[in-house]
Each structure stands twice: as structure tokens, then as C-alpha cells.
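Q: What would this complex look like in 3D?
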Amino acid sequence: EVQLVESGGGLVQPGGSLRLSCAASGFTFSSYNMNWVRQAPGKGLEWVSYITSTSSSMYYADSVKGRFTISRDNAENSLYLEMNSLRAEDTAVYYCARRDLEGHNHLDYWGQGTLVTVSS
Amino acid sequence: DIQMTQSPSSLSASVGDRVTITCRASQSISTYLSWYQQKPGEAPKVVMFGASSLQSGVPSRFSGSGSGTDFTLTISSLQPEDSATYYCQQSYSIPRTFGQGTRLEIK
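A: Here is my prediction, written as C-alpha cells for the whole assembly.
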């Protein structure tokens, strides 16, 4: 069974840092491109970042570019999101999601999410 | 960036009704269009990909159509468990933008 389990969320002050993790199981993690998607309270979905299976390429939304860094450890079956210079508007549930392998590029599995709250 | 616009933002329909949600892209995205269903307190789940391919396990009352810039998600006979917010997303280019969502309520 495919499972994605996020962790690392919590309360952080503006300007602070946080590292999110996503533990993957039930599939060959090293074969899949992965994403982070977030959802502010009561709002819609916002794509945040994307990393290829071998970490050869990473992409970011303009809203987080230069502040967030996506990475992965295929030996540990884990995806990460390093978040720096956090702002109130980064408050959201952060989901990791797997991109399908068959070329349609949709997100076929999602984790349950981890809540990040940026507040003083 | 490609902008995705959904309509309506919300709708209310009765069990058994046929419901259609529309998504429009600001430029052509071929069929790189997915639909996600999200219920309160849950993660989104994909219901349709490639504009018209039904995700495994999703009931056949769901269907999708469109290509280029205009797409639709149709539920042929609405069921109580279909109450959710639906989002379209383009996967043609980075950034992978979502529509603003359509909240579907059962009367």
C-alpha cells in the first residue's frame, strides 16, 4: 500500500525556519518525481515545489522561491522541504504528493498533511 | 504562468442530479488536466487525469472531457458522498496551477 506521511509542522515565529519531512513507503520511491502542495486555512490548493526522481531538477512557486528548498534522500525514502524566512502567509497544511509515472503528470497519491503556523 | 478558472465557485444539487463543473485554462494545456476531490479534513484525491481518464476506484458516474483550454467534470447521478470541493490542476507547465475550487453541496 502506498503511504506518504508528513511530519515536522508546528508553530514558528515570523522569520523563523522549519524542515518538513515526508516518509514514503509501499512503492519504489526513487522512481518517482515528488511535489509539495499547501493549503492555507479555508483556502484552495497551491502548488509549492517539485523535485525529479534523481534530484536533477527542482522547481518552486514564485511565492517561495529563494526561501524554500526541496530535497530528497532516496536511500531513506524521504522527501524534505526546508523553509526559511517564514511569513504569516506561509501558514498552511503542507501535503507531499507523488507524481504519476505514466506521463499524465497528475498527483496520484497524497499524504495526510502537516500544519505549519507562522505567528508571533 | 497558466491561470486556471473554475465555475461555478459553489453549487447545490439534489441526489440523482447531473452536475457539471467547468475549468478554463488561460492558454492551451492539451489534455494535461486533472480533477481532485477534497472532503473536509481530508487530503485531496485524484478523480480524473489526462482530462478524461477515470482514476482507478472512482465511480463511473464521474466523467471528464475537454482539451486545449476548456474542460468539464461531470457527475451523472449525484450521490451524497460526492459532497466535496473539486479542484482542477494543469500539469502542462511549471508552476502547476490549480483552479480556485468548486464547492459542491447536496440539497
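A: To summarize the key features: Chain A touches chain B through 21 residues (CB under 8 Å). The longest strand of chain A covers residues 18-25.
Q: Very helpful, thank you.
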